[in-house]
Amino acid sequence: MLLADAPTITPSPFTQATDFVRRFQPGSTQHPVPRCSQCAISPLCNPGELSAEELAQVDLLVQEVRTVQRGASLYRANDPFHNVYILRSGSFKTVVMHREGREQVTGFQIAGEMLGLDGIVGGQHLCGAIALERSTVCVIPFESLEDLCREIKPMQRHLHRVMSREIVRESNMIMLLGTMRAEQRVAAFLLNLADRYGTRGYSATEFNMRMTRSEIGSYMGITLETASRMFSRLHQERLVQARGKQIRILDSGALARL
Helices H, strands E: what count in the chain? Predict the structure, then answer.
């Protein structure tokens, strides 16, 4: 049979609808999948002791790279859990919604950090992830990641370290909310953010905060007014220089001693 005579296969309505949703999900765009071995942030999200063969296996993990526009959701609370996400560029906030519709910020994520781990425990996401700016993420099916971790022990240890950091972050947050004054909370938040930026090769003393004062206050358990007042106080005490979202840390030692 000639190719011209081959029957035409028409996708089912379900397949067409699924493809439409996948390609035109509001606020997100798919891109060709890059190789982890050629990615600038690979040292942040992969263990350094992988062989070339193992790194090639890691390359196969990433199923797609997705761009999420500012204000759009990567996933929402109660969505089924299938993937974890490595943040390639940009930043996110994770949130839960109170019954009365009020948003509670539970964390902020920047390049090189992982999103979606909250879905492991119950098979669905407990919080939502919203882009604070135009951001890109690598989409990794969790089942595939688990399979690879069984084969490559350094990858398994790396995943355990990532999960451990989340546990430590939660513990530190409990201490921050339970024992620190408002000024200390803001200082601890800035020092933590500075350390994370520094680890990623950015300036640890001068950076743009993509989150609003209201979002910072929500995360730290203080009001917008209190958050703004604490930033002003730290500015007046010459510990930081705050110009809108532009932050410059002038005395990290003094901030730590508050």
Answer: 9, 12
